[in-house]
Amino acid sequence: MKKYVLLLLIILILVIGTFFTAGCRVVLVPADDKIEPGEIETRQYDFDEFTGIVISGAFSYEIQKADDWSISITADSNLFEYISVTKSGQVLDMDIKIPGGTFWTNRSYPRPQAMITMPALTSLGSSGATDGAVIGFVSDMYLDISLDGACKVELTDLTASKVLIELPGASQATGYIQVGSIDIDVSSASGVHLEGSTDYLTVEASGASRVELQDFVSQNADITLRDASRGAFNINETLDAAVSGASTLEYTGEPVIGILEVTGASTFRKK
Fold it and tell me: Where are the domains of the chain?
């Protein structure tokens, strides 16, 4: 009996490991495989005047700054009946809902690809193993980015007055940004790797997350690392830090160290 229990446990670990190591490369297919693969097709959607986007369900997407709004999705023709694109207020919502569906890897259904252009972006929310890029937005507005469920986003040539990045579940954010201030809140083995600069940086990291900002120049920083998280930073002026639970904080630059708490076999050091 113990052997069967152990075997089931090993299988469960392998399945979960496959999902998270595949990350955003998983695709959404029906559990019973009743949907036959069709032809690849591109459809246009007529929505405008939105500044926020919510994307769910294994999409690959690109959001690019432009003078006008446009939306297109390229996918297997037999998946379009399960793809929903709607707008509520100033938020565009894009989703895939297959009754009884589940996530699998290495199947014959290609990942749906969404292409979106818009003049300004103020919020992006994604879940369900999406994989996306945000390109070229330059503004003095606030930008809120939230990823959950093994999602990934790359930020390219992004400028804003303030940015909030929230990654609560095994997600990744990378790229180049220049912002007045940035708040980063990551947990559950999520990761952030950015280049660029900011005047004010705030970080909350927990659950074995990683924050790699050694190429992201911060003038002032307030950093909290917990639960075996790791962070690398480049700070010029002031640094407040709380490091606990076997976490590690490394920094370069010559900041004035203000409030400092290092507990629970943690490490705080200058590189």
Answer: 26-121, 136-271
